[in-house]
Amino acid sequence: MLGKAFLSSLYFIIVSGLLAISVHAQEVDCTVQVNYEAVSTTYKELLRDFASDISDYINNYKWGSDDLDEKVKCTINIFFTRAVGENRYSAQAFIGSQRKIYRMNKSSAVVRLFDENWDFTYLDRIPIEHNLYSFNELTSFLDFYVYIILGYDYDSYEQLGGTSLFQKAADVANLGRSRGQKGWQRRTGSYSRVRLIDEILNQRFTPVRSALYTYHFAGLDSLSINPVRGYKNIIQAIQSIGEAKRDVDPRNQFIKVFFNTKYLELADLFKDYPDQSVYAKFAVIDPSHKATYEEYRTGSR
Asked: Using one digit for the tens of pLDDT, what is the confidence trace for 166-197?
């Protein structure tokens, strides 16, 4: 592992570049894209301001106590699937975030999620307001995922740094669960918001959260400073997740989300690595993407 002094110095350098006092800064810079193809022209007219309303709701709000000069970049792609009534809709959403890699002209995807079970009411020309203490099908969904995005981002810079933000996501999920709302119940076999946040905050998954830090901060961010150490820490992070995976429900979502987000990046990172046997190790830990690892190992990609 990297020495504590090196980690402390590297952490100071990166965080000094990221954190700044700015009373106007917000934590999130979210690109909102909406697909209306599944609804009729009548409903499209009622939804004409929907994308800008959602963007304003997310980007013009201070989500936490930190003032970040470098905002957390994220994307929410919303696909309307049907209009139930004049103001009632069903939709699916892709949620993704990314962070810059230190001293590299590239970014790394931090989390990617697809939620196919979102029902809500939207009233055109009615302001969308924040109320974290009352459940709302439209805004609570957005609140939940913004806190998830922020939690993942903070975890990538500091071990368990996103705990308070994940707890806020859990509070939102508990409001939905207590109301018996569709999409806010713990389900097995398919994606569940409640199950994801339960796993993130479960102590059995603490090694996975610690691995997020090792992978990103001690791994990716140190590649430009000490590539040998950087690659070593990335491998260590994957091995730690593999060890944790043996001790949890094989249907877990937290680890699945990690590899669904990272497998292509992971495979590409090691394409010129001297020891190509790492791909076999990745495939054992992440068999769902074995074919991709094998393509990179053999150079057929």
From this structure: 999 999 999 999 888 888 988 766 899 999 99
Give residue limits of the domains in the chain.
Answer: 1-150, 207-301
Q: Are 102 and 124 in contact (CB under 8 A)?
A: no
How many other CB atoms are found less than 10 A from the CB of residue 74? 25
Question: What is the percent of the chain with per-residue pLDDT over 70, rounded to a whole number?
Answer: 90
CB count, 10 Å around CB of 149? 30
Give per-residue burial for 191-223: e unless 16+ CB within 10 Å, then b: bbbbbbbbbbbeeebebbbbbbbbbbbbbbbbb
DSSP string for residues in the chain: ---HHHHHHHHHHHHHHHB---TT--SEEEEEEEE-TTS-HHHHHHTTTHHHHHHHHHHTS--SS--BSSPEEEEEEEEEEEE-SSSEEEEEEEEEEEEEPTTSS-EEEEEEEEEEEEEEE--TTSPP---TTS--TTHHHHHHHHHHHHHHHHHTTSTTTTHHHHHHHHHHHHHHHHTT-TT-S--SSS--HHHHHHHHHSGGGHHHHHHHHHHHTTTGGGTTT-HHHHHHHHHHHHHHHHHHHTTS-TT-SHHHHHHHHHHHHHHHHTTT-S-TTHHHHHHHH-GGGHHHHHHHHHT--
CA angle 208, 212, 216 (to 5 degrees): 160
User: What is the C-alpha separation between 143 and 28, in angstroms, rounded?
Assistant: 12
End-to-end Cα, the chain, rounded Å:
31
pLDDT tens for each residue of 52-78: 999 999 999 999 877 767 899 999 999
Residue 32: strand pairing partners: 76
| Alpha-carbon gap, residue 25 to 236, rounded angstroms | 35
Residue identified by tokens 């190790």 is: 281
